[in-house]
């Protein structure tokens, strides 16, 4: 017999591993969402100041809104 032959883990171990990875994925998704929100907030802040937008991104400032 070959003693080095790997054995499959029990179904309970597999289930716990799957649950652990699902939790890790949920946490990473939440962190990605948080980073997306922070990125959007910083981008909005940068673009709200025409001088900063021009210096940092080379974006031309938007003309001010007028009431029609």
TrEMBL record:
Taxonomy of the source species: Bacteria, Bacillati, Cyanobacteriota, Cyanophyceae, Oscillatoriophycideae
The species this protein was found in: Gomphosphaeria aponina SAG 52.96 = DSM 107014
Protein name, as recorded: Uncharacterized protein
Domain of life: Bacteria
């Amino acid at each position: 017999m070959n003693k080095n032959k790997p054995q499959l883990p029990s179904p309970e171990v597999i289930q716990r591993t799957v649950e652990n990875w699902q939790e890790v994925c949920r946490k990473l998704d939440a962190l990605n969402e948080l980073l997306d929100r922070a990125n959007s907030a910083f981008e909005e802040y940068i673009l709200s100041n025409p001088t900063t937008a021009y210096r940092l991104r080379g974006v031309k400032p938007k003309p001010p809104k007028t009431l029609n």
